[in-house]
Structures are given as structure tokens and as C-alpha cells.
Amino acid sequence: MNNVLKMREHTYLANTYNRFDVALKYGNGVTVVDDEGKEYLDFTSGIGVCGLGHSFEPWVKATTNQLKDIEHTSNLFYTEPMVDVAEKLCKAAKMEKVFFANSGAEANEGAIKAARKYAFDIYKGDRTEIITLKNSFHGRTLTTLSATGQDHFHQFFDPFTPGFVHVEPNNFDELANAVTSKTLAIMVEVVQGEGGVIPLAGTYLQAIQDICDHKDILFIIDEVQSGMGRTGSLFAYMQYDLKPDIVTTAKGLGNGLPIGAVLLGDKVEDIFEKGDHGSTFGANPVACAGANVVMDYMNEKLYSNVLQMGDRLTTKLKEIPQVIQVDGLGLMLGIAIDPSINARDVVNACIEKGLLILTAKDRLRLLPPLVISEKHVDKAVAILADVLADQVKG
Ligand SMILES: Cc1ncc(COP(=O)(O)O)c(C=O)c1O
User: Residue 156 sits in which domain range?
Assistant: First the structure.
């Protein structure tokens, strides 16, 4: 890539990202192109964002038309795009109301605030704890870092937000023991994305639902990574018999523009009163115009493609000798590889061969656009198989 760009980045950007040596310039469907004209099959979708593919024509049209109409207004006024997306989300998810934020972390902050306000209103300050899971990831703000159940995120930035208790996923006894008279909510990802793409057991999710139902504890599901069709349904929780009180989404909702949403169920639909929460950019009309297009494509045809391509990928990946295990749901897949192989080296070698993939902890992670076809799956698996075989040869 262009070394001058790399040096300028190093000079002027905060040193927070370990970027790969690729400068991307264009995107179209499942393909992205770098500054030297090299094409890549994009099995990252910008970390689970561009589910409908890059520069998806109806999305480009809707957002650019909206830009020409009005690019922004404050939340002191009404706009049609925000009401349209909210209505579509509520009807599709069987939730009551929506608060719009700009990212996953912000959506989770909103969810945590809504849950704490419920505890304040109903339990007058007696309930102060939210149970989250070890190996979870809920965002990078101080409170969502505190919610995140991974110790290495709990350093450098003290003091963290109190009020979070972390328990081992899929351990029923530990969960039951952690629930006390102080517990106000239980918050989980149905599939732990950053934690390695590990789905929770359906029986465990059901146990959480039962505890929440019996003790009036709020069930918060973070669908920031697993939502918007990624797992073969609008939200992953819909594949289980669950009725969360609060659901968060972001990433794929915008397909490339920043938007997050907190979906509020009947217990908490009126918990926020005027002035309790807000955001300058939340419900931005251009982002909402894009999200409206995304919502219009959330249908059985797309979900069925996600499930079929997910199955094909999983089956073919399992045939690669260096692949030890494939976990996930739909097109959210984590691949455990031979421990002698370094996942980041694999990503770099895939880049060389024209395939973009991700890591999650020591695993490989695939989050391709939801619109991929068999030829994309086959090409990606062929490149990955070659790369893994080369890594073993050294
Ligand atoms: C499950 C989950 N929650 C929250 C977040 C944070 O989202 P954002 O980076 O948009 O703030 C992420 C990001 O990866 C995520 O995977």
C-alpha cells in the first residue's frame, strides 16, 4: 500500500488500531478494491456492518436522496425516516418503542440506563446490579466496558462503572447463585462475537428467561453483532423461545452509516421520560433512510440465503485439516484452528490472496455480507484452505 498514507496515519491518528497493510478505496457487493486496484472478497463486511453488500444500489439511492432533502435535523423535530424505521423495528421484533443511538456501545448504554431507571422507579434503588457473562463484549464506553466480562478490558481506565457481576456462560448454578435481591437485569449476547463466536446453549437462554420472568428481572439481549439477519433471523434470539425486555442493535442496521437502536418491550416502553436520554445525531435522517432500506430486505429470502450459505461454509470449512472446530449461527462463524498457527498470520496471508477475514481472540472469524452466493463461499474456502496448508508447511 501507499507508504505515505501509512506514515500520515501514524502521525495524525490515535494509536488505537492494529491496521492491516491495505488502504481500501472502493466497495461493490461482496468485493472491495484497494488503492492499487487489487480486488478482495470481503468476508468481514466492515465487522458485520454491510450485510446487504457494499454500495447496495437501493441503499445508495435512499441515502443520497435523503441527503439532498435534508441531511440532519435535531431530535427537537419530527422526521419521517426515523418514525418509519422505528415502526418497522417494533413490528418485526414485537417490541414497543425504540430509542436511536449512533453505535452499538451507545445502544447498550441506553439499554443499561433504561434498565436502571426501571429499577429506580419500581424498586426504589434496592436493585443495583446487572449480571453479564464472562467472555462477553458490550462496547468501549466506560460503562459498556464495565459490562463486558473480560478482565483485560478492565484495566487502565479506572474507576470503572460499578454495578456489574460477571458469571461463566452456560453455568446454570453460577447464574442461580449470582441472582440476588439486588439483581435488576441479566444482559447477554446470544452469540458471543468478540469472544470467539460462541453461541450460548438454548437451555441456558431459556433458564435466563425463566429467572427473569419469575423475579421481574429485565432480560437485555445485545444483538449488535448477531442482529439484522446475520444469524438467519432478524435477531438471533428469535430462534429460541425468548421474550427479552430490551434488545440492542447497531452495525448491520445502518449497512454503513452509524446508527444504533435500543428496542424497549412492554415493561420498559415508557421508562424514559422527556429529558432522560438523548443524542444529537441519534435518528439522523440519512442514517435512518439507509436503515429503512435494510429493514425492507429483512425477509425470509435473505434469511434462507444466510442459513444455506452458513451451512455450506461450515461443512466446507470442517473439511480443512487445520480446522479444529467451527462455531456460530448463520453467517456469523468462528473457526478454531491448529494451535500452532497464528490467526493474524492467516489473515495477512488471506489478504495476499485476495480475501479479507477477521479474528476473534485466537480464532478466525467470518462475517461476510448476507447476500453471498455459493461461488463466493467456495472461493473463500479455497483461499483459506491454501493459506492454512501453507502455514503448516511454514
Ligand atoms: C455484541 C457487541 N456489542 C457492542 C459492540 C460495540 O459496538 P460499537 O463498536 O458500534 O460501539 C460490539 C462491537 O463489536 C459487539 O460485537
Answer: 58-296
Same domain, yes or no: 148 and 290: yes
pLDDT digits (tens, 9 = 90+) for 281-296: 999 999 999 999 999 9
- 153 and 178 in one domain? yes
Name residues of the chain where pLDDT drops below 70. Answer: 394
Sheet holding 39-42, edge to edge: 24-28, 31-34, 39-42, 355-356
Q: Is the CB of 108 under 6 A from ligand 1?
A: yes
The atom number, within ligand 1, closest to the CA of 103 reads 10
Residue whose Cα lies nearest atom 3 of ligand 1: it is 138
Report CA-CA distances (Å) from 386 to 208, 321, 381, 390, 391: 42, 11, 9, 6, 9
Instruction: Assess whether 324 and 189 both reside in one domain.
Output: no
Q: Is 248 close to ligand 1, i.e. is its CB under 6 Å away?
A: no
191 shares its domain with 49: no
C-alpha–C-alpha distance, residues 47 and 295, integer Å: 19
Q: Is the CB of 143 under 6 A from ligand 1?
A: no
Residue 119 Cβ < 6 Å to ligand 1: no
* pLDDT one-digit tens code per residue, 310-323: 999 999 999 999 99
One domain for residues 130 and 111:
yes
Of 123, 119, 89, the C-alpha closest to 107 is 89
Measured between alpha carbons, how far is 297 from 308 in angstroms, rounded to an integer?
17
CA 35 to centroid of ligand 1, rounded, Å: 28
From 140, 220, 224, the mutation candidate for ligand 1 (largest count of ligand atoms within 8 A of CB) is 224
Give the CATH number of the domain where residue 309 resides: 3.90.1150.10
Q: What are phi and psi of 356, to 5 degrees?
A: -100, 125
pLDDT tens figures, 273-283: 999 999 999 99
Ligand 1 atom closest to residue 193's alpha carbon, by position in its atom list:
16
Only one residue has cell 435473505, namely: 302
State the total domains in the chain: 2
Q: Give the number of the atom of ligand 1 that is nearest the alpha carbon of residue 144.
A: 4
Task: Please say which residue of 252, 267, 296 terminates a domain.
Answer: 296
CA 4 – ligand 1 centroid, Å: 31
